[in-house]
Amino acid sequence: MKHQFSTSGIKAPMISCSGLHIGFPTEHTANNVVRDLSFTIDRKEIVSIVGESGSGKSLTSLALLGLLPQQARASADCLRFHDRDLLGQSYRDWQGIRGKRISMIFQEPMTSLNPVLTIGRQMVEALEWHEGLNRKDATRKVLDILDQVRIPAASKRIKQYPHELSGGMRQRVMIAQALTCGPELLIADEPTTALDVTVQSQILGLLEQLRADLDMGILLITHDMGVVAETADKVVVMNAGDHVETGTVEQIFAHPENAYTKRLLASVPRLGSGVVPNSARPETSPQKDAPLLEVEHLQVRFDQRAGWGRKARRRVHAVEDVSFRLGRGETLALVGESGSGKSTLARAILSLIKPDGGTVRLKGRDITGLNARLMLKHRRVAQMIFQDPYATLDPRMRVGDQVAEPIVLHGLARGKAVARRVQELFELVGLDPAWARRHPHEFSGGQRQRICIARALAVEPELIIADEAVSALDVTVQAVILDLLKDIQQKTGISYLFITHDLAVVEQISHRVAVMYLGRLVELGSTQSVLRSPSHRYTRSLLQAVPVADPTRRPQRVQDTSDIPSPIHDADWQPPAWPMRQLQPDHWVAEGDPLHEVVGS
Amino acid sequence: MTHFPLTSTLKSSPGTLGRSVLVAIYRKPTVFLGALLILAALAAALFAPYLAPYDPEAFAVGPVLSAPQPGYWFGTDEFGRDMVSRIIWGARETLLVGLLAVSISLGFGLTFGLLAAYLGGWIEKLFMRMLDVLFSFTEILIALACVAILGPSLINATIAVGIAGIPVYGRMTYSLVLVERNKPYIESCRAMGAGHVRIILRHLIPNITPSLIVVGTIGISTAILAASGLSFLGLGAQPPSSEWGAVLAGARDYFSTAPWLLLFPGLAITLVVLGFNLLGDGVRQMLDPKQNK
Q1: Would you say residue A8 has pLDDT above 50?
Q2: How far is residue B191's CA from residue A379's CA, in Å, rounded to a whole number?
Q3: What membrane topology does this protein have (chain A) (predicted)?
Q4: Cβ within 8 Å, pair A375-B185
Q5: Chain B residues with CB-CB distance to A under 8 A?
Q6: Which terminus of chain B has a smaller tally of CB atoms within 10 A, N or C?
């Protein structure tokens, strides 16, 4: 190990950990899920533990807070916070450390805040309780801290409830809560994973700033190499419980020593670096003439009803005047942040939601407003894959039966032929057909997504709409699934409408890109031209926010606290028309920016 | 309709169910105890003529109001009837009451709750308000009203208890379906082209069954107790029936002089109720694919 511990003359690091083992012992084995982990954290240092799911990174952070599950056993040669041995602390000792000197923020800010108390109430009460302040002083301190995490109009915010804040604002509140007692170490467990890229970039900038302002160490736990490259000073790489490699961020990215680190870095999609890993974008050449899918002026609105007579007071303009075409064998990526209406658009195309206007033509036939029986025929043409493969599989049905279901449903095979077809499909997506008898919980995330893909392919569709199909997967798995999808496209000439928030994935898989913002298409064009020369203001800010997995290219962050404007308007609001201007033969951009409209209205 | 999910789950795993039962029993001795209690009650019900030493309704087979003693292990009642025989024969009617009442409650409750939650709209409003009206009266009041209309008899008391239980299962199913039907796997079925009937029968019902089984087995116990209550009030099983509630009712006058007349039927009810609860928990675990590897 390359670490020095408190040898004479050198100031001891804030956290020193060496030979840490964490296990869930049974009668026979130790079952260690973290093995021989060593690292140190100093003040003002951002140390990142990076690894895929199941690597033991979160357990490590819990050990630093004495919050390991009861069945877990931890042992270490040394696990110290300054000069205190963290493994030997009593419950009472922990009260003086946890939340005061070491505090933590979590991935999902909504579930970590009490939904029935206002922001101010939760924070003020904590201060009254912990520090014995009176209400007035506590409130003043809370306002100070909210200012520190750059929450605009803090005095207004403290009267709001968690659900009234956006995801980014909630994460700021969480950070503010963690900072209340002035901790020396902040543990951030995937703090930006649930956030959009533009907001993620804001939060990461905030963490960096706070480290400098408050003289605080940060332990950043993440799976995202881009986030690591942009923020960390030191990196600890973990794989399935093993400590793989430690080094400064420059070392790790420039000269990774371990094979796993190299593989991890290789599978990170690098946007705009010109190097597309694994293989180039699909070689299939989409046919331009007869488009498979034509969407014209599609519109989906949701009314928010309230008061007497349930009159529509406000309206969510989820999808507004969207038009595009998708050719055979083509992949169109639909990019946008949460709330941009991309999932609503996908559901409207498949008639899972009734559109309020416009037409959807599949193979030249208008399928809007068809009844269930007629629609069934068209469902064979277009299938869907969803984000969370576990949630989209029936937990109580064997996966073979689930893949067989669409075959039976559409009458494509009978009796023994069904089983044969299921076997073929399993082989096509690279699964052992013998696993057909298992239940969904017996598979890993990547395998489950393969099952979902097999199920979608069962009816030999011509179009697959993939809604964030790889965003819940680890990067190495993600790369494999993307390759599989490309492979299937080459074999079958299928078209994909690929919905994602991850621009790096877009570059890997799609021929064309459509950027969505507040329910509108703001830019549409070939992947090359949109990513290389983005023309809309929003596309540019989106591209800038994407973390780059290269520590030498750290962005200059501008402190920005703006939220994405809301697509909710008064019921009588008329959306202005936005003509698309053609820049190049295959590149359109919207003439207008909702930001100006919202500010204007 | 109510038994469909169970059979479909069983059918899909031929040969493994027996093993998973054994595994569940091996893992949890409480399940084994539950199974044992129910088996004992079933055996008593099925083989009553062979097991019971005397005719349960025959007078003066022993001394009047005798305390438990060799020959009359549970004592005798005011007519000299043997309590062992009465309790063995009573298992028949008591078990029938529990199973039938729960079937009625579950059948109607499941249908109403599922359709209300799945279809929504005016059907939801209509069904749920109907259930609310039923819910706003206490169960025993509804049962009393039903018995008043149908006339006192064991079967009518059972139907009454069954009707009184509908809102419980209806509400329960309603909330379970509301949660399940918004899960992505149901949406993916719709995207696949599955119709309502298929989604309900193949996906929704199997996924809500485990919770319903737990509630149902506890329901068997409450149904037995409720029917016993009606019998106790003289509205259910009529003398000389040896249904346990009726036996309890008949013994209330001898509370201080012959407590064994209350003790043994009470104990029998308790044990059967306990058995169903323990077994229900075991069945729920067996139906969970995560439990049997």
Answers
A1: no
A2: 7
A3: Peripheral membrane protein
A4: no
A5: 9, 12, 183-185, 187-195, 198, 202-203, 206-207, 287, 289-290, 293
A6: C
Highest-scoring range by mean pLDDT, A69-83, A429-443, B100-114, B129-143: B100-114
Which fold, A294-304+311-381+498-547+563-601? Rossmann fold (3.40.50)
- Say which amino acid occupies A288: K
A389 Cβ contact partners less than 8 Å away, ≥ 6 residues apart: A445, A448, A449, A451, A452, A472
Checking if the pLDDT of B10 tops 60, the result is no
Would you state the structure tokens that stand for residue B255, as one six-digit string? 């509370």
* pLDDT tens-place string over residues A374-389: 888 888 899 999 888 8
What is the least distance, in Å, from the CA of B151 to any CA of chain A?
45
CB atoms within 10 A of CB A388: 19
The residue among A371, A394, A448 with the most chain B CBs within 10 A of its CB, best to mutate, is: A394
| Domains with residue ranges and CATH for chain B | 45-56+71-287 (1.10.3720.10)
How much is the pLDDT for B13?
Answer: 41
Q: Does pLDDT of A483 surpass 70?
A: yes
Task: State pLDDT tens for residues A288-298.
Answer: 567 899 999 99
Chain B residues with CB-CB distance to A406 below 8 A = 192-193
User: Contact B204/B180 with Cβ under 8 angstroms?
Assistant: yes
* Chain B contact set for A391 (CB, 8 A): 183-185
Please state whether A9 falls in left (phi above 0), alpha (psi between -120 and 50) or beta.
left
**Global pTM?**
0.77
The pair of three-digit structure tokens given for residue A582, joined into one six-digit string: 């053609």
Comparing alpha-carbon positions, the chain B residue that sits nearest to A375 is B193
Q: What is the pLDDT of residue A498?
A: 93
List residues bridging with A568 in a β-sheet: A316
Contacts of A397 in chain B (CB under 8 A): 12, 202-203, 206
From CA B54, how far away is CA B60, in angstroms rounded?
11
CA-based nearest distance B117→chain A, Å? 18
The pLDDT of residue A282 is above 70: no
ipTM of the complex: 0.72
* Residues A309, A315, A321: CA angle, nearest 5 degrees: 135
Burial (CB count within 10 angstroms: exposed 0-12, middle 13-18, buried 19+), residue B261: buried
